[in-house]
Amino acid sequence: MLAATLRVATPLVLCAMGGLFSERSGIIDVGLEGKMLMAAFFAAATASLTGSAWWGVVAAIVAAQAMALLH
Fold first, then answer.
1. Is pLDDT at 3 greater than 90 in this prediction?
2. What span, in angstroms and rounded, lies between the C-alpha atoms of 45 and 15?
3. Residues 9, 41, 15, CA angle at the centre, nearest 5°?
4. DSSP string for residues in 15-51
5. What's the sign of the alpha-carbon dihedral 62, 64, 65, 71?
6. pLDDT tens per residue across span 8-53
7. Domain locations in the chain?
8. Of 36, 33, 55, 35, whose CA–CA distance to 45 is shortest?
C-alpha cells in the first residue's frame, strides 16, 4: 500500500517541488497543473501513435516547455 502511494504521488511531489523553486525565485507559477495535464496528454497520444514510450517522454517535455513559454 505504501509503495503504491509513493508511486502514484511521485508526479505530484515533483510538480510541487518545481512550484516551490519558482516561488522561492520570486516567480508565481499558477499553471503547473495545466502543464502536467498537457504533458500527459501529448505523452499518451505520441506513445500511442508511435508505439514508443521514449517518444512519449520527448513529446511530454516539448509540450510542457511550450506551455511554459505561454506563461
1. yes
2. 21
3. 35
4. HHHHHHHHHHTT-----HHHHHHHHHHHHHHHHHHHS
5. positive
6. 999 999 999 999 999 999 988 888 999 999 999 999 999 999 999 9
7. 2-70
8. 55
